[in-house]
Amino acid sequence: MEHSYKILTHSVLFHGLDEQSLEVLFKDKLYRIRHYEKGGYIAHSHDECKQLMIVMKGSVRGEMTDFSGKTIVIEEIKAPRPLASGFIFGSNNRFPVDIIANESATILVLPKETLIAMMQQNSLVLKNFLDTVSSRTQFLSNRIRFLSFRTIREKIAQYILTLSGKGKNTVMMTQSQTSLADFFGVTRPSLARAFHEMEQEGIIKTERKKIILRNKEKLNNLLHHKPS
Questions:
Q1: HSE of 222, CA atoms in CB hemisphere, 13 A
Q2: Considering the chain, what is the average pLDDT of its residues?
Q3: Over the stretch 22-47, which tens digit does the pLDDT of each residue have?
Q4: Are 194 and 153 in contact (CB under 8 A)?
């Protein structure tokens, strides 16, 4: 475990702790390290969530299947981030989505009792955990709003405007079109067609992964269902 402490200093749960502090924190605590190959299921939707998992190496994704059978990628999670931190406590301790390894992945597993002991031993771990749960709640709230958009064009507009923030007219896509299609819950050809239509209408211009915002007003209008 000693070689893993450096990785954990970059985890949101242990932010502010050095390797020596982590060594003290983990002493005599129960934990496990598990390894998964690409495509391996780390957890299934509705499995009981009795432990905190932290991605130590590689990346995983959370995905769900809607009533039509379409797979929707909710989020991709890279090391060293925790999984489903908001579902360990409470009355319905179940994973909300399937957790699948994108590549060879290593997972640190902390039983609930170990997590509680760590939070009691170090108040910074408690604060970090509460911050993490709050941030996840905010993320899920935004994700639900995103998935509520009815059209692909609306989803593209929200995605681009979120990347651009204020004042930027050029953004770099952080995902491939295939990954983005999975994230949107649509087919790749449908996504490519929507991008092409928006480019033809002078709303955006695409250059590989670079997107130039040619008409921010029209992008905003798409989100408010106003005619362009």
A1: 23
A2: 88
A3: 999 999 999 999 999 999 999 999 99
A4: yes
What mean pLDDT is predicted for residues 105-120? 96
Bridge partners for 51 per DSSP: 111
Query: In a 10 Å sphere around its CB, with 0-12 CB exposed, 13-18 middle and 19+ buried, how is residue 117 labelled?
Result: middle
Confirm whether pTM is higher than 0.70. Answer: no
At residue 155, φ and ψ (nearest 5 deg) are: -65, -40
Confidence of residue 225 (pLDDT cuts 50, 70, 90): low
The verdict on 138 and 158 lying in the same domain is: no
- 3-state SS string over 91-113? CCCECCCEEEECCCEEEEEEEHH
Q: What angle do CA 10, 175, 78 make, to 5 degrees?
A: 25
Residues in the chain: 228
- The CA dihedral of 42, 47, 52, 54, to the nearest 10 degrees, is 20
Q: In which domain, by residue range, is 133 found?
A: 2-147
Q: Which helix (H) or strand (E) is 118 found in, with range?
A: helix 112-121
CB 114 within 8 A of CB 44: no
Residues 167 and 134 placed together within one structural domain of the fold: no
